[in-house]
Structure to design on (1087 residues):
């Protein structure tokens, strides 16, 4: 009797951040789902740094949580330190980040998945897809087992023909200590897919007992830590672990340079492109030769483990060079290695071959998510996995696809960038990639996305009710500031303290609260405000939301107007089989690019490089709206 | 394509003609026209029916720009299918530009090539075959306008804009760097440097915007007003300069009641001579309108020529002096050339008397041509001596002018934000808008470019 008889709705290949979210989403939406991975002990591994979130990435985690994904919850339960980055900037920049307990992160993910209904697990390498004409119908494993499915989500990470480099040595592998996956790239290329190679790297892991922390700067977490999940099932940390910071020196740089001739980056062995924003240490000292020192962040890998992650020292230099150089770093004089840093090359598929749903244009029912699409980062991968899982489920259920717009979510910006512009280097999210970042804040991810998540059947009703309550309470509180006046004798002492100009007559509180240097902490000194907070039992979330709405309403409004303009072009659809070659008045380059990428809307067309505003005008005429 | 913006453009061929038609289209067309139109019968434009024509003046605050006819076409019964206003004004380039600029300043957008037709199509006023023809038209017009832009960018304009954009981009990158990489060990440029940069950008922008007036002059000729009492020989002088019988020449005082313009190239520089009625006190109604017009023309002119009749001046030299003083008082900055005409009939004593009473007078006979060359030399010297010196960089394209105005507006907002300690992410909204307007002149700016700039110049990444 064979292991698998029934046809699954969704098979997810790979169980990293993308695969885990994809499996959870499909299963939670009621699809019979199978998660296949080469090693079930390694579900949701943090293969690189032990941290979730950060600038732009933290916003993505909040979005995943608001939609009903698991990354936010797991990030909270496994956190050892919380920081809200960029707190001194405007609210669009506030970015949550946690340091994570690596082992707990993976364990919590696995336990959550095990509790998820409709989800089966199986450990083996998938070596081929089963395709009937232009439609995927299942997968074949390395043992030759065929498993049938209506849709397949590929989340192979760095495993496809993965090649690990340390100095002049290299060997096949998907991660340190794990085998590479073979077969799928070749099969997809046969189907007509373009594939490419990318490169990424990771620093050494070391024994924390061998470090001298007294020579480093301590970097503690926030005094009042917040958290990722909008649900109240997770709680903010009550105690935290610190990170530490130290620096390289000219001496360290000299020692590293000694190994340059054996560096795969410099001797031509690695040809593929790595991310510019996550350079190896050898790349940093090579490109920025005049910089005398670079930061090194010393990050604990968990609550109890002695393992330490040496962030900022990503390298593929020979292990002896790594070791010698690191020993010259302040605090690392007696360092013992757990394992050396390495670079890894892997196959990816240029994401312009995908639709907004992350389904491939060539094979129906086949979805790609994560590093296979040329992205980097847990958060980027997880959000794609979530979207691929949702859309695979929707397709099986014959429902409308789920697409987020650029002004609705970073996830929307991410996917639209990928499929419209493609990427030459590993793609990481930045806030500057979003045209309307003032709208895409971490504090309002629930307002933006939870109603959608609920409609999908992914976000729970409890989640929706919490969001509605937060919205109602903050709107009422904003209205209170608009309606209520304050007398000069009440407010002037507060204003004087802040060097803000005083008032001659009563005025609405909203006006005073709008002043740049006046915060809620000042406003709450007014008795009527204090009374309101107490009477309505307002929590920090509502107060924060109110403050943002009062202080930044002008900017939010401005960006909303700009976004509305964008949306008008977004509404102009381009017919599926539109023949660009007949538009003689359009540049050749634009015609070629448009024919290849086949944008769905005029707005998307306008974002393709090589398509000029004039080309867009011409296109508009042809669309006839 | 943003259909809720109101667009404006000249609907008749560019250049001077008897009349010109300026067209506005969009939701605010009627409202905007109503605020700058004073009907002769006191009617409010926004309350008038569609397909009606109204006589009145286009005014900027209280300044009358021109007497015009305004036609109203309410949506959907118009060429574009939107609310459309057509202003028939007098055909001088100056008036056309004044009216267009007035509406641009009030938030109108300069129409792109073919945009009226495009809107007509989008609003279902044209069918597909017509629209395809329009698409071709748009393409060809863009090619032509591209060439024009390239021509105009010669002589430093292109460099100037590119440099500005580069500086703004650097600024934007630094701001983005602070935002996306605040965790990194990068040094941020200090705010006082930013302020200096912004002030510099502001200065350049203002200079370019100001240069638009100069640019117009170069494109359309330097306006020179010829002022003087009736029958002092203004028309004859003009004819002497033009070498052709264009203006009305007669012996009856006050024949030249309206203003007449003509262009003549002297030493490679275009001059636009505006023949005006004099500024003599009069009871004649028609003529007093002419006098009022004369002062308007003096205001618009870059150079004023005051002309009087040397042969009958004897008793009137004091009046001449008074009128000259009047002009000098009213327009102290305007270069003024005083000419005594008809000196071919004068005796040496009479000439000496004129020289004594009127300082710096140029003696001339339009009839014989004596002194005409001296006059043209003097006009050229004035340009070379700096009275009319042009800015090195000159903006002549109204679309560029429009973009520069909007960029300046955003830059001022950025500066204000900087001064009030606004957070970078909020400042970036205005910076991006400013970059966008620069992009309208030089091409597109994208976020990728910002990131590329960051990675090229800073060591980023853990």
């Amino acid at each position: 009797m064979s292991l698998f008889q029934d046809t699954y709705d969704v098979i997810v290949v790979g169980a990293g951040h993308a695969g885990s979210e994809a499996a959870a989403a499909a299963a939670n939406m009621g699809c019979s789902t199978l998660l296949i991975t080469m090693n079930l002990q390694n579900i949701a591994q943090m293969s690189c740094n032990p941290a979730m979130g950060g600038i732009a990435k933290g916003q993505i985690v909040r979005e995943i949580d608001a939609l009903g994904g698991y990354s936010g919850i797991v990030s909270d339960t496994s956190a050892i330190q919380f920081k809200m980055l960029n707190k001194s900037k405007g609210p669009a920049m506030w970015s949550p980040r946690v340091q994570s307990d690596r082992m707990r992160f993976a364990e919590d993910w696995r336990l959550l998945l095990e509790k998820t209904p409709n989800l089966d697990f199986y450990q083996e390498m998938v070596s081929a897809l089963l395709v009937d004409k232009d439609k995927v119908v299942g997968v074949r494993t390395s043992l030759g087992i065929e498993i049938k499915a209506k849709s397949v989500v590929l989340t192979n990470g760095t495993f496809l023909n993965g090649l690990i480099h340390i100095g002049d040595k290299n060997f096949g592998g998907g991660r340190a200590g794990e085998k590479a996956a073979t077969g799928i790239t070749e099969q997809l290329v046969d189907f007509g897919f373009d594939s490419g190679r990318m490169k990424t790297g990771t620093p050494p892991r070391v024994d924390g007992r061998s470090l001298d922390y007294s020579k480093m700067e301590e970097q503690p977490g926030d005094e009042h830590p917040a958290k990722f999940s909008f649900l109240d099932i997770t709680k903010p940390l009550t105690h935290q672990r610190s990170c530490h910071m130290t620096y390289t020196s000219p001496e360290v740089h000299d020692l590293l340079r000694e190994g340059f001739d054996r560096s795969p980056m410099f001797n031509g062995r690695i040809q593929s492109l790595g991310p510019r924003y996550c350079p190896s240490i050898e790349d940093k000292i090579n490109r920025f030769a005049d910089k005398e020192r670079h930061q090194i962040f010393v990050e604990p890998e968990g609550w109890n483990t002695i393992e330490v992650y040496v962030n900022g020292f990503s390298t593929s230099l020979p292990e002896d060079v790594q070791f010698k150089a690191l020993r010259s770093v302040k605090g690392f004089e007696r360092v013992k290695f757990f394992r050396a840093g390495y670079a890894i090359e892997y196959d990816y598929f240029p994401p312009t071959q995908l639709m907004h749903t992350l389904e491939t244009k060539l094979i129906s029912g086949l979805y790609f998510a994560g590093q296979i699409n040329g992205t980097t980062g847990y958060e980027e991968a997880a959000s794609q996995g979530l979207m691929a899982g949702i859309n695979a489920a929707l397709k099986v259920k014959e429902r409308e696809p789920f697409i987020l717009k650029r002004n609705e979510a970073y996830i929307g910006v991410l996917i639209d960038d990928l499929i419209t512009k493609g990427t030459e280097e590993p793609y990481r999210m930045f806030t500057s990639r979003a045209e309307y970042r003032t709208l895409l804040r971490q504090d309002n991810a629930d307002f933006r996305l939870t109603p959608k998540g609920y409609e999908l059947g992914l976000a729970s009703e409890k989640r929706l009710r919490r969001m509605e309550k937060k919205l109602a309470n903050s709107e009422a509180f904003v209205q209170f500031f608009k309606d209520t006046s304050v007398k000069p004798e009440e407010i002037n002492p507060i204003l004087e303290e802040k060097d803000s100009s005083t008032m001659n007559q009563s005025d609405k509180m909203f006006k005073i609260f709008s002043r740049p240097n006046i915060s809620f902490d000042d406003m709450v000194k007014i008795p009527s405000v204090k009374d309101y907070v107490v009477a309505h039992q307002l929590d920090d979330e509502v107060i924060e939301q109110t403050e943002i709405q009062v202080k930044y309403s002008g900017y939010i409004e401005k960006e909303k107007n700009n976004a509305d303009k964008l949306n008008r072009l977004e509404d102009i659809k381009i017919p599926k089989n539109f023949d660009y070659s007949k538009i003689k008045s359009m540049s050749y380059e634009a015609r070629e690019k448009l024919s290849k990428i086949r944008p769905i809307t005029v707005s998307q067309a306008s974002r393709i490089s090589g398509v000029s505003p004039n080309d867009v005008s011409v296109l508009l005429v042809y669309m006839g709206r | 394509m943003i259909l809720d913006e109101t667009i404006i453009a000249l609907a008749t061929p560019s250049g001077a003609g008897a009349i010109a038609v300026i067209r506005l289209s969009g939701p605010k067309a009627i409202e905007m026209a109503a605020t700058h139109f004073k009907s002769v019968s006191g009617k409010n434009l926004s309350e008038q029916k569609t397909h009606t024509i109204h006589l009145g003046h286009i005014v900027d605050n209280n300044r009358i720009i021109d007497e015009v006819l305004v036609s109203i076409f309410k949506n959907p019964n118009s060429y574009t299918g939107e609310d459309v206003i057509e202003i028939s004004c007098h055909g001088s380039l100056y008036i056309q530009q004044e009216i267009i600029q007035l509406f641009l300043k009030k938030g109108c957008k300069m129409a792109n090539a073919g945009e009226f037709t495009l809107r007509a199509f989008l609003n279902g006023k044209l069918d597909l075959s017509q629209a395809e023809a329009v698409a071709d038209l748009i393409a060809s017009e863009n090619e032509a306008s591209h060439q024009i832009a390239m021509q105009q960018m010669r002589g430093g304009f292109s460099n100037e804009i590119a440099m500005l954009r580069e500086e703004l981009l650097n600024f934007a990158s630094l701001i983005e760097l602070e935002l996306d990489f605040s965790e990194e060990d990068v040094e941020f440029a200090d705010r006082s440097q930013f302020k200096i940069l912004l002030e510099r950008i502001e200065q350049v922008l203002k200079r370019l915007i100001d240069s638009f007036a100069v640019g117009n002059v170069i494109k359309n000729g330097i306006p020179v007003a010829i002022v003087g009492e009736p029958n002092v020989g203004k028309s004859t002088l003009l004819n002497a300069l033009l070498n052709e019988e264009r203006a009305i020449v007669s012996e009856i005082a006050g024949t030249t009641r309206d203003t007449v313009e003509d262009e003549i190239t002297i030493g490679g520089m275009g001059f636009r001579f505006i023949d005006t009625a004099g500024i003599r006190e009069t009871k004649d109604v028609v003529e007093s309108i002419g006098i009022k017009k004369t002062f308007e023309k003096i205001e618009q002119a870059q150079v004023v020529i005051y002309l009087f009749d040397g042969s009958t001046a004897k008793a009137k030299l004091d009046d001449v002096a008074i009128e000259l003083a009047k002009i000098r008082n009213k327009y102290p900055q305007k270069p003024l050339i005083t000419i005594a005409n008809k000196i071919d009939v004068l005796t040496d004593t009479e000439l000496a008397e004129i020289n004594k009473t009127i300082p710096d007078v140029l003696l001339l006979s339009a009839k014989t041509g004596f002194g005409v060359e001296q006059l043209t030399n003097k006009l050229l010297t004035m340009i070379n001596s700096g009275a009319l010196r042009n800015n090195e960089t000159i903006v002549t394209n109204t679309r560029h002018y429009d973009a520069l105005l909007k960029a300046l507006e955003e830059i001022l907002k950025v500066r204000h934000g900087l001064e009030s300690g606004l957070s970078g992410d909020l400042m970036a909204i205005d910076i991006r808008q400013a970059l966008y307007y620069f992009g309208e002149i030089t091409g597109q700016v994208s976020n990728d470019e910002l990131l590329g700039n960051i990675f090229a110049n800073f060591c980023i990444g853990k």
About this structure: The domain at 128-302+383-443 of chain B is CATH 1.20.120.430 (Four Helix Bundle (Hemerythrin (Met), subunit A)).
